Each structure stands twice: as C-alpha cells, then as structure tokens.
Amino acid sequence: MNTIRLTFQIIATSVLVLFCSGAAQDSVHPKLPAETTINKAAGRGDLLFVTVRLETGQELRFIVDTGAPGTLLDKSLETNLAKRVATRKIFWSGGKVAVDAFPAPKLYLGNTQLLSGKEVMTFDFNRLHYPGPPIMGVLGVDCLRHYCIQLDFAAQKMRFLNPEDRNTQGLGSAFSLVVSRGCFEVRENLAGLKRGNTMIDTGCNSDGMLTPTLFREWTNTPSSTPRHQGCFPNGVLGGESYSKLDLHGGGDNNLLGLSLLARHLVTFNFPKRVMYLKRTAIGPLEKDYSFTNVQDTAQHSLQ
After folding, report:
1. What is the number of domains present in the chain?
2. 167-189: per-residue pLDDT in tens?
3. Is there a single domain that holds both residue 180 and residue 80?
C-alpha cells in the first residue's frame, strides 16, 4: 500500500487578529481539559485527530494542527455560527483562497470549554480528499497556544499539563520555541545545517519538509533536480541522529512533521515557549492504514 502524505498547512495572509492580539502575553490560566484519546494511526500515516464538541452537543472530528495559526470549521457548520464578520485570505498547501470569518463559537474538549481566538474561519474540507470519516475542523494555534499539551503516541493520549510545573525531569530534550507567522518554530532544521528555522507542524503527516535550497544540500543534488522526496539516513535534530527520514523538498518553510514527532513523547509548553522531546523509537514507526478503510490506496499529496 502506498504511503498517504498530506501536508495541511494553513497560514493567514491577513492581519492575524486570531493570534497576534495576545501572542506575547499568555497570562490566562485556563481550566485544563481531561486527558483525551487520539487516533491510533496518528503519526503512522494518519493526521492527529480529537473529538471536539459544539455547545449544541454535536461532536466533530478535528485535526490538531500546530501549523495553522487559526481555528477552522467546515463550511457545513456555518448555520451554527453567528453573523459573518469578515472575509479573509489564507494560504494552504492547495493554494491561496478566500474564506469567511465568524465570531468564535464555544468549543469543548470533553466537558471543558477551550480557550481560542476571537474568530474562526470556515473551509470546505472536502477539498482535501482525505480518506476516512469527514474532517469537520482544525484546532489551530490560536487555541493551542494557551496550553501545555503532551502527546503520548504509544498510549494514544493527549494530556493537558500545568505549564507552571517546574518538574521537567523525564520530559526529554528541551527546544526553545519562537513565534513566526502565528505558529511556533525551533532554531534548527532536520538537515543539521546551521541556518533555517523549522516550523512545528502536526498537520504534516510525513517526517517534514525542507526548503529547496536545504533539500538540495541535504541530498547533494543539483539545482536542476525537480522537487521530490527522499529517504536518507542523515537527519539531525537537537544533536540526535534520525534514520530513514521521509522528507519532502520544495516548500516555503522547513517543517517538523507528525511522523517524526511520533517517535517521541512530545510536550508542547506553549505558554513557556518550550518543546520537550523524549525519544521512544529509534527508527520510523510502522505505518497503520486502517483509517483509510481500503485495501489499496493511491498516494495523496496536496503540496
């Protein structure tokens, strides 16, 4: 079965009132949601999904996407929203598109209301042609930035931790996070070269991406070579070596994707601007295509 790779990165090109109005001062201490279950195939070929609930009680399948500055809902949910407040332009891996913005509704994880930005945008998720049950939204950084979130792929759990907890023993290596274009980056790249930050993007379900220049240097290929993907044994992050990386070239950003993150216990302390990675697997995780509900699936790419 061919690997399904989908780079789903949404970057608002308009003024990011969703994020920038409070990005520098995360003084709010929200009530923390209970531990929640994530899909077993997350990081094994699938994206990372959780079940989000509207105030009406309707349960929705949402992507958890640290590569999306804002939260999005499927266009079919517009009847549940208040009056449209604006039209915004976003850039995603399928190109640039105009979307409608609405006052943010109350969203719940379990019985706990999530903090979010002032707006949500709507998007037709059918455009992704993604296998499995319908995608109904994206939890973006305007929500995630308020929390310290731990992703335990082995236990299939997402935990919300106290960001003020100073006991970080056992969380692994620490990486400082910097804010860029409404998302978070580390000051490293998987090519192991001393230039070029990398965006943390759980909406990218390969190991990641490199800009064309870094990809050519990493693979030692000439500039005339078309953008492509490659598996090489020389990826480096935080001084750790990673084998058999599935990296794509040709994007505008360096990305650290979900498949590589899934080799770790991951803790994002967004209020404190730090990420912890505790390695739990030496090589790539075995792929799980049960989410596709098919026996033979063609490769999907939205780059």
Report:
1. 2
2. 999 999 999 999 998 899 999 99
3. no
In whole angstroms, how far apart are CA 165 and each of 35, 68, 106, 195?
Answer: 17, 27, 28, 32
* 26 and 132 co-located in one domain: yes
pLDDT over 70 at 14, yes or no: no
pLDDT, tens digit (0-9, with 9 covering 90-100), for 77-134: 999 999 999 998 887 777 788 899 999 999 999 999 999 999 999 999 998 888 889 9
Backbone angles phi, psi at 64, to 5 degrees: -95, 110
The CA distances from residue 262 to 84, 207, 234, 239, in Å, are 37, 9, 18, 18
What does the block give as tokens for 116? Answer: 């979010």
Residue 123, domain member (yes or no)? yes
Cβ neighbourhood burial of 212 (10 Å; 0-12, 13-18, 19+): middle
Kindly report the number of other CB atoms within 10 A of residue 118's CB atom. Answer: 13
The count of C-alpha atoms lying within 13 angstroms of the C-alpha of 239, restricted to the half-sphere facing its C-beta, is: 5
Residue 40 is encoded by which pair of tokens?
Answer: 């077993």
Question: How many C-beta atoms lie closer than 10 Å to residue 182's C-beta?
Answer: 22
Q: What is the pLDDT of residues 228-271, one digit of tens each?
A: 555 565 789 998 999 888 888 877 889 999 999 999 999 999 99
* Same domain (yes/no): 93, 181: no
Find the distance separating the first CA and the last CA of the chain, reported in whole Å. 20
Distance CA 15, CA 121 (A): 13
